[in-house]
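Notes to self after the call with IL:
- keep both proteins in one doc
- input above output, always
- annotate only the second one for now

Protein 1:
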Amino acid sequence: RWVLSLQCKGSRNFLSALRRAVEVDFKDKDKHKSQGLYLLTTGIPDQETHTISAYVAEVCRGFDLQLHVCLFSVTKGSDSSGIIPARYANPRETAKAFKEIVQAANGRFHWFGEAGIFESDDITSITSEMEKAKNYSQKCAFLVESLKQRS
């Protein structure tokens, strides 16, 4: 709700935003079985990953909250704002940091850019299910074939 009224600024103060979301804006958190937060970002938070992960793990344990991250890798030179973040990491380091944070929050991680999807927990999960279904189908076909040969 409150995020719709915000304007883009130069801070990547993740902890401040997360605290605001879980301590102020989840007023009716006890009435819901589970809740999720989605972080849409283009870069690494200002704070250290281990600090964020510890806070996220503690907060998410308090009630059924999942933090999901959508990381968008921006092509070099496309940032016209001129804002330099307090902390810098290349795209792979950024993805690694957010994956760690998401694991602490039992959430999902999605990383994409102009070239397409680099990594997505949902797509990985779907692909895994499809592989299992294919293997099961092959076993069933083998079983049917072996039963036909016995008859």
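Protein 2 (the one to annotate):
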Amino acid sequence: QNVFNMVVEVPRWTNAKMEIATKDPLNPIKQDVKKGKLRYVANVFPHKGYIWNYGAIPQTWEDPGHKDENTGCCGDNDPIDVCEIGSKVVCSRGEVVKVKVLGTLALIDEGETDWKIIAINVEDPEAGNYNDISDVRRMKPGYLEATVDWFRRYKVPDGKPENQFAFNGEFKDKDFAVNVIKSTHEHWKALIAKKTDGGEINCTNLTVSGSPFCCSEECAKATVDAAPPCKAANPIPPEVDKWFYYQKN
């Protein structure tokens, strides 16, 4: 039915994203990200924070050792990303929602393939009207163009160049997007089965019985019990509410 689970990482119109980074020998840029530090995305006018409910599809992995045949670039070492475009303005961080896949955009982020799946919550009152990427263009005019604009410029305030896209920034349709998800799921299965080297990725799990990383429920409980209590959230820095105005030369 082309329906997948999405874990919401960043609710729409918010700026904070938790970066859990490890040293990645294939990507020196990621080595200087402090583990567990909140990163705030700038407000690039006219956008406020993330313009969709943003998250990821579990059990997918964009393998940094695999060169994508469509983009010519390797994966970004993350699960595949999802932009949920439904009418519910803000989902909750950590919420798991079922989404219908509509299409995808191939972002080239600092030389890596970073697929962005466009999807809609299956429980959205308008979900029945959306079946492919053309429906988004027809029913939400300007949204896809704003999505390209957002991904192109969101790192410019950090002093980085504009991002690039495969396919000249054109969105691919639902069938193409589903194939991309299936491909990244196969990479995840190889990772969790130790058939490929995941570097410092922790593959410990409870549910994949054939995985050499599978642990017992007792072991998992002991890990949770030993974890320190959560600290109170730090106040949001005032610069997060500033606007960045960008004019291309």
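Annotation: The CA atoms of residues 85 and 120 lie 5 Å apart. The chain has one domain: 3-199.
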